[in-house]
Amino acid sequence: MTRPASLPRIIRRRSKLHGFGVFAAEPINKNTRIIDYAGELVRNDQVGRREEQYLREGCIWVFRVNRRWSRDAAVRGNVARFINHACRPNCWFEVVDTTIWIRASRFIAAGEELTYDYATVGDHTIPCRCRPGCTTRL
Predict the structure, then answer these.
(1) Domains detected in the chain
(2) Which pTM does this prediction carry?
(3) Using an 8 Å Cβ cutoff, are 34 and 103 in contact?
(4) N or C: which terminus of the chain has fewer CB atoms within 10 Å of its end residue's CB?
């Protein structure tokens, strides 16, 4: 039996982008699976009120998995929920069944903040903070 590959070490700390962020604790190679975006699996038709509350607080904790399901990282989530959005990210997400993997889109140096494009759908009420002068809304 083969031993599963270990995931790279990452840490949560204060971010210059927004609140807390997640940072590489060691170098991460391109396309490496970094962490799964954990959280309660909720039917999309039942997640609306939660999403509205989180958005009022300026947070995006709900991640659409597919047409039927979403992951609510505010409930049973992990450190992946603190990965910030960026318009020019160094990570991307991959959905496998109902698991959401955050993967490196390029080599990431130790100490570098992890970011991915949230690809939000909806009213876009939260301003992006990925760089000074960014006009994108999430």
Answers:
(1) 10-116 (2.170.270.10)
(2) 0.90
(3) yes
(4) N
